[in-house]
Amino acid sequence: MANKLVPKPFWLRKKITPTLDKQMEILFDKAGVNTVCQEAMCPNISECFAHNQATFLIMGTACTRNCSFCAVSKGTPMPLNSNEPQNIAKAVKQLDLKYVVITSSTRDDLSDGGAEHFCKTVSAIKAVDNSITVELLIPDMKENKEALEKISKSGACIIGHNLETVPRLYEVRKGAQYERSLRVLNILSSFNSSIATKSGIMLGLGEEDNEVINLMEDLLYVGCKYLSIGQYLAPSFKHTEVVEYVNQEKFEYFKDIGMKMGFKYIKSSPYTRSSYMAHEYLEGT
Ligand code: SF4
């Protein structure tokens, strides 16, 4: 067992390239767009930016929930920026992206959870080039069926909603419910069977192996065949402590089990995040 006061193991020391990161920051600032790479202080930022990969964070940088593992700031969200879909589309064009991931904080203050804004953003990107693949990573939208139907028909081909952890540890995800998140995934594919659904979890919060395997069974039961598994890293001393730095063999172990259980693609490694090398999921199947 370890906690955040224990030095990270060698496999969790990733290099950053400040000059490149700064260049990308300036580009995003000029375009008037936010990325979750920056807001969530993602450890993969230099690697992803070097490959022209980024995950756009729409609808502002403040979240209406208070998950104790998450670096995105909590607070009163800003009104929606009607220019944002176009701004994202312009940044996509400028970077010549062929695969785009769009996410948002949880917007419980909006009646549709932000579904319409997600859809407008997909449409703006598709208007640049219809062949661009768009992936959405959405909050639970309080299981609003109308909102989820819109999302499922937005033109995105893969839609993610993260379970984050096993049900016993859901106190780190205040305002969320494990069963509801499963239903969200189920509803998405029931409205549009041609989309793929994806989920993501973190290890190192104190989960047991059998709980992770049960979670994988639950995901398959609701038709979710794509999964990301990564190591939880505490963004600050105020956040939930890391219980364990899980070794790389354990990540491989869950990947092997999951693939045998019926997943189409699992990315599982300490640095895996839901949007990390996101283009590989559909390519890999
Ligand atoms: S893993 Fe995702 S959030 Fe992290 S830097 Fe890469 S694209 Fe951004």
Explain the overall architecture:
By secondary structure, the chain is an alpha/beta fold. It has one domain: Aldolase class I (TIM Barrel). It has ten helices and eight strands. It has helices spanning 18-31, 36-39, 45-50, 84-95, 115-128, 145-152, 178-191, 209-221, 248-261, 279-283, and strands at 34-35, 55-58, 99-104, 133-137, 158-160, 196-203, 226-231, 265-268. An eight-stranded mixed β-sheet has the order 1-2-3-4-5-6-7-8. Helix 5 (115-128) runs parallel beside helix 6 (145-152). The longest helix has 14 residues, at 18-31. The N and C termini lie far apart (36 Å). The relative contact order is 0.13.
Which secondary structure elements does this structure contain, and how are they paired or packed?
Blueprint: H1 18-31, E1 34-35, H2 36-39, H3 45-50, E2 55-58, H4 84-95, E3 99-104, H5 115-128, E4 133-137, H6 145-152, E5 158-160, H7 178-191, E6 196-203, H8 209-221, E7 226-231, H9 248-261, E8 265-268, H10 279-283
